[in-house]
């Protein structure tokens, strides 16, 4: 067994430990605020709260050192301010917005040749995936994307461990 495998659990300053601490606090808070959902809309709202809690916990664990974490925290704050006491958007509305965005992007692609389209298409997709990526040059975008992927991997490991713990 690798002795370094569990070392992050012992180090309170590791990304995994900071994320776990923040995420578990958020889950406890969500469980206290809302009873277990029985209707589909309640289930969607609860899933949205858990996803937001996971994103916020990850961004807080990273801190302000990274552009993507600052962008993610800013997006979460702005969403909460805009929404206020309202409920999250419906699934249908999200799908309609995605279709609208894709139509506008396809019009731009028709004017480019194949090589330009492939490079710009991949870069623009990456910019959409990395929080704050729209404002970065390509070099910084790749660096932030690599760090973001590492942090998402940590998030998945911790969430899998929590799920395994509660499923046994």
Automatic annotation (TrEMBL):
Keywords: Nucleus, Transcription, Transcription regulation. Its main location: nucleus. CDD domains: bHLH_AtIBH1_like. InterPro entries: bHLH_AtIBH1-like, IBH1-like, IBH1_N. Coiled coil: none annotated. Residues 13-79 form the IBH1-like N-terminal domain. The keyword Nucleus applies. It holds the Pfam family IBH1_N. It is found in: Nucleus. This is IBH1-like N-terminal domain-containing protein. It comes from Hevea brasiliensis. The lineage of its organism: Eukaryota, Viridiplantae, Streptophyta, Embryophyta, Tracheophyta.
């Amino acid at each position: 067994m690798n002795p370094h495998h569990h070392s992050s659990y012992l180090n309170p300053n590791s990304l995994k430990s900071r994320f776990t601490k923040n995420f578990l606090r958020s889950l406890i808070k969500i469980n206290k605020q809302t009873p277990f959902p029985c209707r589909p809309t309640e289930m969607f709202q609860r899933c949205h709260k858990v996803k937001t809690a996971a994103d916020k916990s990850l961004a807080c664990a990273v801190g302000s050192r990274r552009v993507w974490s600052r962008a993610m925290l800013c997006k979460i704050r702005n969403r909460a301010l805009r929404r206020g006491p309202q409920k999250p958007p419906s699934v249908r509305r999200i799908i309609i917005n995605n279709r609208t965005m894709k139509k506008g992007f396809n019009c731009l692609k028709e004017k480019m040749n194949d090589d330009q389209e492939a490079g710009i298409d991949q870069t623009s997709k990456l910019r959409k995936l990395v929080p704050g990526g729209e404002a970065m040059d390509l070099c910084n975008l790749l660096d932030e994307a690599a760090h973001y992927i590492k942090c998402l991997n940590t998030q998945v490991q911790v969430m899998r461990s929590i799920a395994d713990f509660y499923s046994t």
